[in-house]
Every structure is written in structure tokens, then in C-alpha cells.
Design brief:
By secondary structure, the chain is mostly helical. The chain has one domain. About 60% of the residues lie in helices and about 10% in strands. Helix 1 packs parallel to helix 6. About 35% of the residues are buried.
Length: about 220
């Protein structure tokens, strides 16, 4: 079996998060509301963590297949753990951001963010991420309680289509392009696109200055 990957790279915008925390501690928080500041900081922290976990999961997945002749299973296990944490952080960051942009106080930062609705904040995307996150956690609970049935998967797993090789008989090509757990799937291309959007919003929050005119992300 030949292995290929449809696994987009998500660049880690280190300057964005560094700028945010520098401004937060040395210039001032983006809002006069403690609740708004807490939501903004939570969002920034979780988005950075999700992007880092996605990157580490991607590296470990490629490493496993590059060294599969030696059955380097620890790389696969690390990959799964990183992706599971990534999905959990994405779910939490989406929740924080939706609460932030719709905050009841209608703070200036909330109004500024509400002017634009990125894809990841939609119900369709939020439900997909939440469903996978819930499946990960519920399956872990079943494992601990001894409720896993024979043949049932016990963790998230990278998946994708496997097709016959076009020129080599009895050989196939498998393309890892998604994460799956039970009936739920998320493609790497969608995850990468949502993380990119989250990073764009994070950059807008990092640059937000209540004393200046701001353009919505």
C-alpha cells in the first residue's frame, strides 16, 4: 500500500499571539469589561493551542508512515492525542468566540467582531466540531467504564479513501484526508481552513485598539 496525505499545513502565527499578550500586559486590555477580556484571552489561548496541536499531530502522522517498517506506533499514538486535543481546543475556542461577539453588554470589541461572521462560527461548523469533540470524550468514558464492544474503535483515527494503484497490480494508494470517530468525520482541509480563519480573527483581536477606528476581520 502506498500512502499519500491531503493534510494542509497551518502556519503558526506566533507574532499574532505575542503581540496580543504584549499589548495586554504592557499597553492595556482590549475592553473595560472583565468578562469580555476573559473571553478574548480564552479565545486567543485556545486558538494558539489548537494550531500547535494540529501541527504536531500532522508531523507525528507523517512520521509514523515514514517509519512504518519499524512499526513506530508511538508516533501514531502521539498523532491521535494531538488531533484529539486540537478538536477539543477548537470546540472551546468557537464557544468562547460566539459568546464574545454576542456579549450582552454590547462592548465595543463585541460590536467590532459581530460585524463579520467567519465560517467557523456558523451553527453548521460549530455542531460538526462539537459532535466530534463529544464523541471523543464519550468514547473515553466508555473505555474507562468497560463499556466498549468488540471491534469498536477506542480513539479518534486518521482515515481516507483507498483506491487501486493505476499501474501496479495488487497494490493500492491510501490518502489520509480526514479524522474519524464512529459516525463523525472532519476533513483535514476543513480543519485547516477553520484554523486559518480563527488565526485571522485572532490577529484582528491582537491589533484591536479601542482608541482607534477598527476594520472588522
Amino acid at each position: 500500500m502506498y500512502v499519500e496525505f491531503d493534510l494542509p499545513i497551518v502556519a503558526e502565527p506566533r507574532a499574532t499571539f505575542s503581540n496580543y499578550w504584549s499589548r495586554y500586559f504592557f499597553v492595556g486590555s482590549p475592553s473595560q469589561s472583565q468578562q469580555v477580556n476573559a473571553l478574548a484571552s480564552t479565545y486567543m489561548r485556545l486558538v494558539e493551542a489548537a494550531i500547535v496541536e494540529y501541527g504536531m499531530g500532522s508531523v507525528a502522522l507523517r512520521q509514523f508512515w515514514a517509519e512504518s517498517a519499524s512499526m513506530h506506533l508511538s508516533a501514531m499514538h502521539r498523532s491521535i492525542s494531538h488531533f484529539e486535543t486540537c478538536i477539543s481546543d477548537m470546540h472551546r475556542s468557537i464557544s468562547a468566540y460566539r459568546r464574545l461577539r454576542n456579549h450582552v453588554a454590547r462592548d465595543e470589541l463585541s460590536v467590532y467582531l459581530a460585524a463579520h461572521k467567519p465560517t467557523f462560527v456558523s451553527d453548521k461548523v460549530a455542531f460538526q466540531v462539537r459532535n466530534m469533540r463529544d464523541a471523543i470524550h464519550h468514547l473515553e468514558e466508555k473505555v474507562i467504564k468497560g463499556e466498549v464492544a468488540d471491534g469498536q474503535p477506542i480513539a479518534l483515527k486518521p482515515e481516507g479513501p483507498e483506491v487501486p494503484h493505476p499501474t501496479e497490480p495488487n497494490q493500492t494508494i491510501k490518502t489520509f484526508d480526514r479524522l474519524a470517530i464512529g459516525p463523525y468525520e472532519l476533513t483535514f482541509s476543513n480543519i485547516a481552513a477553520w484554523l486559518y480563519e480563527m488565526a485571522v480573527v485572532a490577529d484582528s483581536i491582537a491589533q484591536y485598539d479601542p482608541r482607534q477606528p477598527n476594520v472588522a476581520p
